[in-house]
Amino acid sequence: MKNYRKGQPIRIALTLNGQQRSGVCESRTLLSDFLRHDLGATGTHVGCEHGVCGACTVRIDGVAQRACMTLAVQVEDRRIDTVEGLNRGQDRLSDLQEAFRRNHALQCGFCTAGILMSCADYLERKPDPSELEVREMLSGHLCRCTGYTNIVMAVLETAAARNGRPVGATPAADKPGQAGVGMPEQAKLVNA
After folding, report:
1. 132-136: which pairs have CB atoms within 8 A and are 24 or more residues apart?
2. What is the pLDDT of residues 60-88, one digit of tens each?
3. What's the pTM?
4. Whole-angstrom Cα distance, residue 69 to residue 49?
């Protein structure tokens, strides 16, 4: 384990969206701040700064994690993927991003980058999720627009297309008071 002195400038080198990048920060600099302010990856948004809302989610070595709960010094020589790296070139969105656009799942856009990064990771680990599984995965994200149904539709559509199936039935609409998980599902989780 490396030791750093307070206030000591530290050069951090990493792979950001497939490109070698480096910058200088202090030992206590959060990864979210390092990405935005030092490396210019402003697609990573900062919401609660407590790891609750998920807006800052990035992939570290392929795994979705909260950038506001990670120090920049912890990602030295690691691979970081942000929403800027999801597209397939400068003018082509990924299939997941296209599904978000088609299903109006972008809404105000503040939480979208983090949700997209979690969904990209999730669909690699769980290529054919159910609606309930998608809603459970989204329960780690707070969408201030509360439009989870459109996000669920986009994720299910992407999964169906990747598995060579037509898009399935439309998920049930969110009800007042619901977050990512429907009321019956919330009751099951509480009683489990």
Report:
1. 132/181, 132/182, 132/185, 135/171, 135/180, 135/181, 135/182, 135/185, 136/180, 136/181, 136/185, 136/189
2. 999 999 999 999 999 999 999 999 999 87
3. 0.84
4. 7
